[in-house]
Specification:
GO terms for molecular function: protein N-terminal-serine acetyltransferase activity; protein-N-terminal-alanine acetyltransferase activity. Keywords: Transferase. The protein is α+β, with helices and mostly antiparallel strands. The chain has eleven helices and 16 strands. Strands 1-2-3-4-5-6-8-7 form an eight-stranded mixed β-sheet, with helices on both faces. Strands 9-10-11-12-13-14-16-15 form an eight-stranded mixed β-sheet, with helices on both faces. Helix 1 packs across helix 3, helix 5 runs parallel beside helix 9 and helix 10 packs across helix 11.
Length: 369
Amino acid sequence: MTPEVVESGGIRLRRFRPDDVDDLAAGCADPLVLRFNPVMPEPYTEADARWWIAEGAPAAWRGGGAAYAVADRDTDRLLGGAGLGQVVAARRQAELGCWVAPWARGRGVATAAARALAEVAFHAGTVRLELLTHAENPASQRVALAAGFRHEGVRRAAGQTRGGGRQDLVAWVRHADDPPGPTRRLLPDLPEGRLSDGVVTLRPLGAGDVELMYRLHTRPEVVANQAPPVPPTRAAVERRCRLAESGWLTGAAARLLILDAVTGEPAGSCGLTYSDPDAGEATIGYALLPSARGRGTATRAVRLLAGWAFGPAGIARLAAGTMPENTASHRVLERVGFRREGLLRGRLPGLDGTRIDDLIFGLLPGELR
């Protein structure tokens, strides 16, 4: 039996009421709420809020799900909504969703609501909960992790867009016997949001870095040292930047910019990709703008990244693949402590059906210089 009221921490889950109309309309009219909830009417009006309170939410309850108002425990003011839908009784599974009004963000409201609603669902007999997020919505992905959900993969074309199309959704799952959270991340956030040795600074790649990344990764000498040696499209670079934080949160890759620590001027980019999470192995890569070359910048950046990988990230082994003729990159790796481990012949795709050799370097924690 699903309870009418649930209190947890500083929030209260309860039924929507007629006096929620103003706050419901204001919260759901927020551009961020509308962006990631394409099934909501746009514009969202008081008439829509009244319909939801009188008809929409009650229908969700009658259908075996739940549609809670998330309210402040002290004032009872509406802070958002949380619900259970896509209920499959035979499989004892459901989908959890929540949204938070702009005046309530930054207070842990969504995390508290997700945790409380998950416990309600499990107490009622659900054994598997899904929380689906847009890849460009890292705030919701952080909520999923904080509430004990684990990244399970991508649900292809599982969501609809406001224009009638389809879009992929990132799937987060929690089972009834999973701990309540937070879920341990493969790639934790950087301490204080960046790494620095006073000369070079690394910070996470973001959506505003498209111009720099496109300029860097379409340079002929940078393209020549990747496989296959084909420059990325602008659309591909934009997507990489938009989804960088999601990749970090799901544990797939940590992508960073390399900056001059004194001036803040960009010097290049670097990154770490989990190649074998079960074995604790990750691979690294890097590229520099011409103005930053020949000054030890790449060596400093790789050393910073490796130190974080072996420290907070708990990675057991780092690898780097290079073109056999890229001696400058070999010297960078060797200065940091990487050792040449072997040549994998024809490992990578080249142009026109050709294959490219890959010279592999490896580094263990005790070898970092």
